[in-house]
Each structure stands twice: as C-alpha cells, then as structure tokens.
C-alpha cells in the first residue's frame, strides 16, 4: 500500500477553500450538521445545482462525504481529518518563520548590546 500524498492532499484542500461558496457550505455544515443538497439550498442563497457541484468539489478534496442514503436523501457531513495535511503544511511554514524571526531578534539584541 502506497503512503498518502500529503502534499497533494494539502493542495486539494487549499484549492477547494479558495471559493467563497464552498467555504459557506463548509461553514453551514459545521454550524448545523449533516445536510442534503436540498436542505442546504433552503438555507443558503445558492441553487441546488450549484450546491451539488460545489459539494462534489469538496468531496474530491476529502472535506465532505455523503453518508448512507436515507431513502433518496444523501446527507453530506464534514470530514475534519482532510484538513490535517494543510494544517501540517502551514505549521511547517510557521515554524520556518518562527526560526527566522528568532534569528532576527537575536541579531537585533546583539546589536543593541554593542
């Protein structure tokens, strides 16, 4: 079994999050829990077709999944674990900045004591 492509997963998450409609869908699922396309269309000023398209893109990025159908209903739910590769990438980037800022602070402190 091949290890997951962590960088590819992070890129997919970042790409999915670039769209404000997709972010609004994620926020609504986080706020109110699992929902169908129809449920989301009732709550948001977005057509059912647009919601279905955006949910498909969020599902491709692993950010949502549709559970077992309840009749003809397919509720979508958040998949928080999909964000972890993006969080890890941001943490590595932040650590690099922290290291650079600490080095700069050390250099400035050394200048002040001279």
Number of helices: 5
The CATH homologous superfamily is called: Winged helix-like DNA-binding domain superfamily/Winged helix DNA-binding domain
Q: Termini distance?
A: 58 Å
What's the number of extended β-strand segments? 2
Strand order of the largest sheet: 1-2
Structural class: mainly alpha
What is the annotated CATH architecture? Orthogonal Bundle
Estimate the global geometry from the Cα principal axes. Answer: elongated
Which band does the percent of strand residues land in?
Answer: 5-15%
Name of the CATH class:
Mainly Alpha
Q: What series of H and E elements makes up the topology?
A: HHHHEEH
In this structure, how is the largest beta sheet organized? 2 strands, antiparallel
List low-pLDDT spans.
none
| Multimerization status | single chain
Whole-number average pLDDT? 86
CATH topology: Arc Repressor Mutant, subunit A
Radius of gyration: 20 Å
Characterization of the model:
A two-stranded antiparallel ribbon has the order 1-2. The model has no long low-confidence stretch (mean pLDDT 86). The protein has a single domain (6-112), classed as Winged helix-like DNA-binding domain superfamily/Winged helix DNA-binding domain (Arc Repressor Mutant, subunit A, Orthogonal Bundle), CATH 1.10.10.10. 65% of the residues lie in helices and 5% in strands. The relative contact order is 0.14. With 114 residues, it is mainly alpha-helical.
